[in-house]
Design brief:
Blueprint: H1 20-30, H2 35-52, H3 56-73, H4 75-90, H5 96-117
Length: about 120
């Protein structure tokens, strides 16, 4: 028997590039309730960039929101994250399932980050 090729994950929207308009448009489609948070974060990070004379706050903003979008645009990651967060918010921290759910949140985040950064 041969192994079946793994199917690509279902994507709600294509992965956006890191330009702010692309990130904003993608977020508007996958998590529109988070747009005010993104815009407020943009203001803070762009102000930090101006004050510091560095693009690092802007790069961090782009990477953060590209990762958020990656988790929401891929149905597999979104479902894993929602299931883990449900456990985190309903079980006691002493429960072994709580720790496993925290590990799952970290794993989902890291998978999304790797997808965005290509590494």
């Amino acid at each position: 028997m041969s192994a079946q090729p793994e199917e690509p994950p279902e994507e709600l929207v294509p992965r956006p590039d890191l330009a702010f308009p692309s990130l904003r448009a993608a977020l508007a489609r996958v998590a529109p309730a988070r747009l005010p948070e993104m815009l407020a974060d943009r203001d803070v990070q762009f102000t930090r960039a101006t004050e510091s004379g560095s693009f690092e706050p802007i790069k961090g903003f782009q990477l953060k929101w590209a990762t958020v979008i990656e988790m929401k645009r891929r149905r597999d990651l979104d479902q894993r994250m929602e299931a883990a967060q449900h456990i985190i918010h309903t079980l006691d921290r002493d429960a072994p399932e709580w720790r496993a759910a925290m590990d799952e949140v970290r794993d989902v985040y890291n998978e999304a980050r790797r997808a965005v950064t290509g590494g």
